Amino acid sequence: MANKELKAVHRTDISRAQWVLKEMWRNKVAYVMILPYMLVFTLFTIVPVLLSAVISFTDFNMLQWPNFVGVSNYVSLFFDDDIFLIAVKNTFIFAAIVGPASYLLSFLVAWFINELPPKIRALVTLIFYAPSISGQVYLIWATLFSADSQGWINATLIEVGIISTPITFFQNANYVMPLCIVVALWTSLGTAFLSFIAGLQGVDRALYEAGAVDGVRNRWQELYYITLPSMGPQLMFGAIMSITGSFGFGGVVTALCGFPSVDYAAHTIMHHLEDYAGQRYEIGYSSAIAVILFLIMIGANMLVKNIISKLGK
Amino acid sequence: MAKLRTRKHRVVLSRSTGGDAGITVVMTILGLFMVLPMVYTIAQSLKPLDELWMYPPRFLVSNPTLKNFTDLFSLMNTSWVPFSRYVFNTIFNSIFGTAGHLLIASMCAYALAKIRFPGSTGMFTMIRTSLMFHTTVTTITSFIIMSAFGWIDTPLAIIIPAWGSTLGLYLMKQFMDTNVADAILESARLDGANEFYTFWVIAMPMVKPAWLTLIIYSFQGLWNQGASIYIYSEQLKSFNYAIGQITAGGIKRAGASAAATVLMMMVPIIVFVVSQSNIIETMGSSGMKD
Helix axis angle, B156-163 relative to B139-149, nearest 10°? Predict the structure, then answer.
């Protein structure tokens, strides 16, 4: 008899609401199992995001009780805040270069590594992955490019005769953005890269053999007709990693060029957000920045999702 | 035998010598770009003081010494809060943050993957979307929530949010989907096992590579945790933060600072090397299904 109660009921027998309730009760153990994670996830992801959205319509400054100010934060961002517009421009330049470049780099390197014999493959994987697992190792770029006697690049350029006095790379508005882009690419072979390596190993060997029989002539055709379509899930996963990484870029700039960077030459949305949140305590305003950044990422994600789903088919 | 020959044949068919040469050249250039700064990092840490400040600077070290490392350790001994305290904080947070995340994320992933219940698809979509939420975006509001709980300036401010990390859950869910056969769970249920038992005793051993990867990601994140806005007591700050304080000493600390960078990066690299085969196996099915 107890068994009969636990049996799944067909949806057509009863109303939808009743069916949902019955199913929920039947699977009550599932809700118990997801409860701890969903609690933490809700508390530190969902609620903060929703709360940020609400606060962005107020003038909250952590001291006074917030007043509702409508969309005025958003209006000021786009019409009164020149530095924000610089930040948006820089973020888009940066994301447009580093996002696709790091994505393609991750994929191509993973693809090349996949052709190597297993022993060498492990070592080469470590070489490419090491810069992104080891915390703040990217600070070595500050030493390499420094203007004092430790700066190997300046010393070499002087020795070769290209320049006569050292260049202060990180205080020069012409160099900070390109340099930060290079460093960002250096640290960009992370999670997505590993995911590609694993995805390539997981492609069914039989597909390649079938492809060869069906007239695949070279490795580029093989890549286009066989490899890419079999890697849809990894390509999508990697894309999300590249999007969040490139639009949320900022830490590397602060560490290398200081904050704010000279003439705001490498000022990104993330810097603007941190400036208003962490130094000026204009939480309402910074939340508006957060919401905009967030919408940009979702938009970029949808765009990339469309491109990849076309490629995968 | 025939199959083996076909495979060899395929390689000949689709691999040109010119392509191989091109790829080797490109890989060598990229590889040098990746590895040279790492080599420089290690060389710097082994240079004696006169070589560190020699002009023109040499890329490699000629008289390697471990003096920078001994300097670093003696500097650690002079800190106001005993250095072991920072190390303890980081290890404590890493262990409890990772263990809690492993436990609750796996359990949630099991339920989402292996039990069909109203809301499961919606919840997973929500979690998956949140992969692209950058955590900096939610720092302010997380601060407000944590202060409401009274967690500010306690280890809980670091540990509990780590439990709710999204990447780990995503990984576990994909693996539960593909690597755990429903039939095995079904037979266990028929034998009277409850869901907690099937999850822990049957499903978890089958997804070992997944949770090894989860441990590495979570550990890496917590190990590299620097100064946090949630912690202001010196006694509760992290190892990475303390190392940063030492290296912030500027020119006179150049040697110790180079040693510190190497020290900080060795630990995650060792963790990675030890478990590399597992990571690579695991990431294979961590992509999205759309």
Answer: 120
Residue of chain A minimizing CA distance to B7? A209
According to CATH, the topology of domain A71-312 is MetI-like fold (1.10.3720)
Kindly list the structural domains of chain B, giving each domain's residue range(s) and its CATH number in brackets, ordered by start: 2-65 (no CATH), 76-283 (1.10.3720.10)
In B, minimum Cα distance to A186 occurs at B34
B173-to-A150, B168, B202 alpha-carbon distances in Å: 48, 9, 15
Of the residues B7, B9, B11, B13, the best mutation for testing chain A's interface (the one with the most A CB atoms within 10 Å of its CB) is B13
Residue in B37, B154, B168, B7 with CA at minimum distance from that of residue B93:
B154
Measured distance CA(B125)–CA(B144) in Å, rounded: 26
ipTM above 0.85, yes or no: no
Within 8 A of B9 by CB-CB distance, chain A residues are 212
What is the model's pTM?
0.78
Q: Which of residues 240-259 of B touch A (CB under 8 A)?
A: 240, 244, 251, 254
Digitized pLDDT (tens) for each residue of chain A, 313 residues in all = 444 445 565 656 678 888 888 888 888 889 999 999 999 999 988 888 888 888 889 888 878 888 888 888 899 889 988 899 999 999 999 999 999 999 999 998 988 888 777 778 778 888 888 888 776 778 788 888 887 777 888 888 888 888 888 888 888 888 888 888 998 888 888 878 877 877 777 677 778 888 888 877 778 888 888 888 877 767 877 888 888 888 888 778 888 887 787 778 888 888 888 888 777 888 888 888 888 888 888 888 888 888 877 765 5
C-beta atoms of A298 and B40 within 8 A: no
CA angle A235, A241, A247 (to 5 degrees): 125
Partner residue facing B282 (CB), from A30, A198, A250: A198
Question: In chain A, what are the domain boundaries?
Answer: 1-55, 71-312
Say whether A283 and B140 touch across the interface (CB within 8 A).
yes
Query: Helices A28-41 and B83-114: crossing angle, nearest 10°?
Result: 140
Asked if A134 contacts B264 with a C-beta cutoff of 8 angstroms, the reply is yes
